[in-house]
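Section: Multi-chain targets

For targets with more than one molecule, the full set of components is provided together so that the structure can be written out for the assembly as a whole rather than chain by chain. Components appear in the order listed by the source. The example entry contains four components.
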Amino acid sequence: MAATLKDVAARAGVSVATASRAFQRPDMVGARSLERVRRAADEVGYIPNSAARALISGRRGVYGVVVPDLENPFFPAVLKGAQARAHHHGVQLLLADAEESPEGERSLVRTLAGQVDGVVLCSSRMDEEALLEAASLTRITLVNRVRPGMTGVFADPVPGIPAAVRHLHRMGHRRLGYVGGPATSRSDSARRTALEEVCREVGIDLLDVGHFEPGVEGGRRGAEELLLTDATAVVVYNDLMALALIDRLKGFGVSVPEDLSVVGWDDIPFASLLTPGLSTVQVPRYDMGALAVDLLVAAGEPEREDEGGEGRAIGLPTQFVPRASTARLAREV
Amino acid sequence: MAATLKDVAARAGVSVATASRAFQRPDMVGARSLERVRRAADEVGYIPNSAARALISGRRGVYGVVVPDLENPFFPAVLKGAQARAHHHGVQLLLADAEESPEGERSLVRTLAGQVDGVVLCSSRMDEEALLEAASLTRITLVNRVRPGMTGVFADPVPGIPAAVRHLHRMGHRRLGYVGGPATSRSDSARRTALEEVCREVGIDLLDVGHFEPGVEGGRRGAEELLLTDATAVVVYNDLMALALIDRLKGFGVSVPEDLSVVGWDDIPFASLLTPGLSTVQVPRYDMGALAVDLLVAAGEPEREDEGGEGRAIGLPTQFVPRASTARLAREV
DNA sequence: CGCACGAATGTATACGATTGCAGACCAATG
DNA sequence: CATTGGTCTGCAATCGTATACATTCGTGCG
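Its structure, encoded as tokens over all components, is:
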């Protein structure tokens, strides 16, 4: 159906070899032939067959991206960043949603492995063994997870968390709650560590509210637990939970920021839309996606394999964005 | 690097043809050989090369999905639906973000055309000509847009819009504003038509507030324009705008739903999270994505090309979801 | 016992593009 | 004029898989 290089060559009156070179190495082709091939290609609407190209070159020009849940507002920006760099590298992205299941991730990597040059694994919840299997099947770059020996990109709690805590301290807060994420999450413990350190430094009591599921329900439950403490401010594992928490607090007649200050994590698009605007630690999602693709593509080009991140995890700095959900106490709860 | 069918065949002591058949037509292969091939494949970790397969079969097993903006909360659910059906059909999805630009869509379709068996175009803003070009390059299914002769899936304002209007009428509202989307948008005019019809029927004054950009800024401006009318309720082009509108109204001291009732469109995930929960017309995004992929895949399988939607646009019913943003007036503005 | 037939397997070719190699052609040089 | 060198072009092999066709083998029946 579609025109092939053979058709173009025939129409231009040259061999397929010349036609091919007209695109790949125009300098190797005579001006006359070049012109004729180009015109012929235009006329028949020639589009190179990527499958044939991939077969001979060994590179498919396609990378997979696996996310646990597309509807989680964290990921679209990651994808956009990835997409932008993919486009820049002349490469395509195969999207896969694991539907929150580690087993799903695993099987997705298996099927993707045969069709892509590498996979970006976002916020993977696979266990170590599955991760190793994945790495043996195809090139892997982790986003939002670190594993020694594997290439990855993650958000460094510093300087965002320290800045947030100092901000709260300046606002007069001395008792800070932390509504955490899943106990198994590395990023949760990294954030905890950063919090502990800076709280000790500036002299704030850090109150552990516990571990919660990273969704709306977790945020609601976090609010309930939080009210059992005497914290005047709270840092929440992510924005989604923070918003749910604020909503739940409102149900208890506790309003933000008059009665309580709230800091989120991520800076999802909605964080600034709501009233009150959510103070949060901005995670460079776009850059994370972009860098992940860069690393993956670079790893596939041996000549400049020494570009950096090979097998290493790169931390991208976070930034505290103060908005209306943090303030000096208007009244004691 | 990776094991090929040849390796498997050698290890199993059979020819590549037999090895191939062991996977494609197991019934044509002796039990003994079948077993040996399977074991050999397992041992070397054989993964079929999709490029080679695509080359010979002519089908790539990959479909493209083009969205104008991934960060628009409308699309993730569409993608999830598409993804789910793609997985069901044993097919992959190539994701592309057009970054809000019709020209971007156009060039994406061009590049995708050579790598996929078809493209799902979501909420495309391409002009007619570009659309025709796209259709000439590859199989196209439209989502959220209709064009005679092209396969497509869209959200039918009925019964969602009539239900919403009747609900408002029952709440005592008699003057309803409509904050519309882009003037060029077909879905905007479809919604207008549905609104007019049901308003006439139940006896409500429909006040046209104008056309706005479908983002946060459009919603804010919509709020400002709305206050120039004496509407007591408003239907907004989409949830994102509705939320921004509510936020902006709050800035004017107008609160929802006490002073004004608001109905959105889409039912994006955040619509229910906020206080007040947004009353909205729920669009079956997931089903739209799913159906789009089904249609695309079906169109590629000639034997059952008569399955239905070929060249036709299919409307999926919407549903009104009442929440807290619609109520009887507590006080007159 | 021989023939025919079906099952199982192997051989060879095709898919479309790329590329090493060699040939054709021309100009410049000795 | 022969030789060299360079430019341009074509031939043919190749990537990994699928399949039409040919071949082999065993089996059942006449």
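Chain A touches chain B through 45 residues (CB under 8 Å).
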